[in-house]
Design the sequence.
C-alpha cells in the first residue's frame, strides 16, 4: 500500500508543480486554491508512504515522479524545450526511481 500512496503523492506533486505556473505566483484565486490543495494531498500521501518505506527512498521517488512529470508536462503544455540532453536527463531520473524501487526492500 505504501508504494500506491507514494505514486499518488508523486502525481499530486506534478499537479501542484504545474499549478504553480497556472496560479501565476498565487495571483489567480482558483488555480492557487487547486495548487495548495494538491500540495496538501501530496505531502499527506508522502507521510503515509514514509511510515513503511525508508524516508530517503520515499522522498527521492516522490521528487523524481514530480520532476519527471513536471518536465514532460512542461514540454506538452508550455512548449518547454525537448532537447536530447533534457530527455536523457529525464531518463536518468526514471532509472534512479526504478533502481530505488527495486532496492527498497518494502
Sequence:
Amino acid at each position: 500500500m505504501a508504494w500506491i500512496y507514494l505514486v499518488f503523492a508523486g502525481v499530486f506533486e506534478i499537479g501542484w508543480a504545474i499549478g504553480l505556473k497556472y496560479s501565476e505566483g498565487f495571483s489567480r484565486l482558483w488555480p492557487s486554491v487547486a495548487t495548495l490543495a494538491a500540495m496538501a494531498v501530496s505531502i499527506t500521501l508522502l507521510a503515509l508512504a514514509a511510515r513503511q518505506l525508508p524516508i530517503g527512498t520515499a522522498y527521492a521517488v516522490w521528487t523524481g515522479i514530480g520532476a519527471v512529470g513536471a518536465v514532460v508536462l512542461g514540454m506538452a503544455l508550455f512548449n518547454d524545450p525537448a532537447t536530447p540532453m533534457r530527455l536523457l536527463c529525464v531518463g536518468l531520473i526514471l532509472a534512479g526511481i526504478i533502481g530505488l524501487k527495486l532496492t527498497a526492500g518494502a
